[in-house]
Amino acid sequence: MRVRALLVGALLAVAVAVLLIAAFLRAPSPTDGVQPVLATGGPPTSVSAPPVPSATRLPVAKVQTPSKPAALEIPAIGVHVDHLVELGLTTDGALEVPKDALTAGWFTGGPAPGQVGPAVVAAHVDYRKVPGVFFRLKDMRPGEQVVVNRADRTSAVFTVYRVDRYPKSQFPTDRVYGDTPTPELRLITCGGDFDHSTGNYRDNVVVYARLAQAYLTTP
Question: Which among 113, 123, 124, 126 could bridge 134 via Cys, Cβ 3.0 to 4.6 Å?
Answer without folding.
Answer: 123
